[in-house]
Design a protein that fits this description.
Strands 7, 10, 11, 12, 13, 14, 15, 16, 17 and 18 form a ten-stranded mixed sheet that branches. Strands 1, 2, 3, 4, 5 and 6 form a six-stranded mixed sheet that branches. α5 runs antiparallel to α9 and α6 packs across α9. By secondary structure, this protein is of the alpha+beta class. β14 and β15 form a beta hairpin. The radius of gyration is 23 Å and the shape is globular.
């Protein structure tokens, strides 16, 4: 569907009863409300639907609260979970007085990044393929108040339940770090993941593969076919919506939290990316290292130069840095390599097809806002190309076995959200190019993350501190 008329004709054909309008807040969570189909016509696409922006995280202050949503007809599909036939449509955010797009609307940032790429003349299209991992648990409980704090996770697949009385306990539970890829019955969630994939296909998301991931207790991955930047961010939001609601349908709970389990693999979102022009891939050169063109190397150079600042957007939670530690396949090393999964930038070598040549940036995780994350990565890559930033020599050794003196020379990602935000404060000029990001948005992002997340964790006693210090 491309036009408002297409959407309304589709709604009539499907006998739609309600229209659910969705948009994204600054941290990266979908928000929504619904209107009867009778209240939704061609004028809605032009005049928009009003809402209170002061109640949305990271948006307006209360004296400037009125905002409007402008539905994007290209995003319309039938919502797979509503009882009444409901049309789901993603919206852009605008100011009702000026009619201008809202500078803190993450989707606007993504759209500006795509336009900026074209304006440079470097390429006319970027393609993105995020690999969003997640966990499917059977139970999650958590609480924090002035006198207590805890969390409790459970999963019938969790190896910690190997001795539990289950009447009967059948014993097929993946051991820690051994969930990649045993067949059923050890993999107990094949049918659940398949239903997720089929629901994605019905919603227009081209899913390609599903499988169990490395960790115990239901870690999973579903891969999508690559797509343009904004469209892929749209699809990733619908992807998360489908995963969570399908799990709930089965009486389970899904989370994209980067590190829910101690001492097992965390949840990453490796982001594949490439540039194209006039229908031709620009990252391929048969004679280059790992089949990469000079442009691709400069793009990598931009990613590695700005990687420490990028993590404040691509790994934006305090929990992200419990995943980004050495071991557990964590890509903490700011180097590039073919096939090496401990490098921040990996060049997949599965295919010699020029169209398949891409680079994979591995530090991100799915707690990020994908519109902001993909835009920031693209701008870093463009900066590398424009300034011919050479990434240095590749490192194809096992990084964890390097001699200490050699390992010391390798830069790494920040060790905490606070450190990442300081890096972003010091290194953000590349994000301002083309007016894609602006200082207001970046300042709002940093303030929100510091006060609402970093400080919120810093000020609260941690349960393990009682183990360490209670008897002092």
């Amino acid at each position: 569907m491309k036009t408002a008329q297409d959407v309304l004709a589709f709604a009539k054909e499907k006998d739609v009863k309600m229209v659910d309008v969705k948009f994204i807040d600054l941290p990266g969570v979908w928000q929504h409300f619904s209107v009867p189909i009778q209240e939704f016509d061609e004028n809605t696409f032009v005049e928009g639907l009003g809402f209170d922006g002061s109640s949305i995280r990271g948006f307006r202050v209360i004296n400037e609260s009125d905002m409007i949503l402008l539905p994007d007809p290209t995003t319309a599909c039938i919502d797979p979970f509503c009882k009444a036939t409901t049309l789901s449509i993603i919206c852009n955010v605008a100011d009702p007085v000026t009619g201008e797009r809202y500078n803190r609307d993450p989707r606007y940032i993504a759209q500006k990044a795509e336009k900026y790429l074209i304006s440079t003349g470097i390429a006319d299209q970027s393609y993105w393929g995020p690999e969003a991992e997640f966990f499917i648990f059977d139970d999650i409980r958590f609480d924090q108040n002035q006198h207590s704090g805890y969390y409790f996770i459970d999963s019938a697949e969790g190896i910690w339940n190997s001795g539990r009385v289950e009447s009967p306990n059948l014993g097929y539970k993946p051991r820690y770090k051994e969930g990649y890829f045993p067949v059923a019955p050890t993999d107990s969630q094949q049918d659940l993941r398949t239903e997720m994939v089929l629901t994605m296909l019905e919603a227009g998301i081209p899913a390609e593969c599903q499988h169990h991931e490395v960790a115990t207790a239901g870690q999973a991955e579903i891969d999508m076919k690559y797509g343009p930047l904004t469209k892929m961010a749209d699809q990733l939001m619908m992807f998360k919506y489908i995963v969570k609601n399908t799990a709930k349908k089965y009486g389970k709970t899904a989370t994209f939290m980067p590190k829910p389990l101690f001492q097992d693999n965390g949840t990453g979102m490796h982001v594949h990316q490439s540039l194209w022009k006039d229908g031709k891939p620009l990252f391929y050169d048969a004679n280059g290292y790992a089949g990469l063109s000079e442009m691709a190397l400069y793009y990598i150079g931009g990613l590695l130069k700005h990687a420490r600042a990028l993590t404040a957007i691509t790994s934006p939670t305090t929990n992200s840095y419990k995943r980004l530690v050495p071991g557990y396949e964590a890509p903490v090393n700011l180097v590039y390599s073919q096939r090496n999964r401990s490098a921040a930038v990996r060049i997949p070598m599965y295919s010699s097809n020029p169209a398949a040549k891409r680079i994979e940036f591995r530090p991100p995780d799915p707690s990020c806002n994908p519109y902001l994350a993909f835009a920031a990565l693209l701008l870093a890559g463009i900066d590398g190309i424009k300034n011919k930033i050479y990434p240095g020599e590749p490192l194809d050794k096992d990084i964890f076995d390097l001699p200490p003196a050699e390992a010391k020379e390798i830069r790494s990602v920040p060790g905490s959200l606070e450190e990442a935000l300081k890096e972003l404060q010091a290194d953000h000029e590349f994000l301002l190019q083309g007016g894609v990001f602006d200082k207001d948005l970046l300042e709002s992002w940093i303030e929100y993350k510091l006060t609402r997340e970093h400080d919120a964790i810093r000020l609260r006693p941690h349960p393990y501190e009682f183990m360490l210090y209670y008897d002092i």
